[in-house]
Design a protein that fits this description.
The protein is α+β, with helices and mostly antiparallel strands and 143 residues long. The chain is built from four helices and seven strands; from the N terminus they run αααβββββββα.
């Protein structure tokens, strides 16, 4: 028997450099990935809404509602909804920004749920920074 066809020589040969350059991992579970992406997207939408509320004072969030008129016609109208602002002013003039999920503040660090901001001028850049942090996945393990 020749060495060329022996099993031992096949297993001892190394893979190519291209194969060695690949980072091979196990597949992330699809349902888990969908769950994380759905939560991330809902949090991104909520932060975007807060950014709109902070930039435009006249902005009122709305939802669609079907209304039946007296003559039987059904039509869709936009109805304003009331959203809670995520920021509050504290007595020393600074702001506290809490990130809420399902009406409860997220615990950003153990025992800490707020981000302290120097003033209203820093609110929008901080909200944009939170938005960017969510996109990068920093909030995935918090909710």
């Amino acid at each position: 028997m020749t060495k060329h066809f022996s099993r031992q020589s096949v297993s001892e040969t190394s893979k190519s450099d291209a194969w060695a350059a690949l980072n091979i991992v196990s597949l992330y579970p699809t349902p888990e990935l969908r769950r994380i992406m759905k939560k991330r997207q809902s949090l991104l939408d909520a932060v975007s809404e807060q950014i709109l509320m902070a930039t435009t004072r006249s902005y009122t969030p709305t939802k669609s509602k079907w209304i039946t008129e007296a003559d039987g016609n059904v039509r869709r109208v936009q109805v304003p909804i009331q959203l809670k602002k995520w920021w509050t002013q504290i007595p020393n003039g600074k702001l506290h920004l809490c990130v809420f999920v399902k009406g409860k503040p997220l615990e950003l660090e153990p025992g800490k749920t707020a981000i302290e901001i120097e003033g209203i001028a820093e609110l929008i850049p901080t909200l944009k920074l939170v938005h960017q942090s969510i996109e990068l996945g920093d909030f995935d393990d918090l909710f």
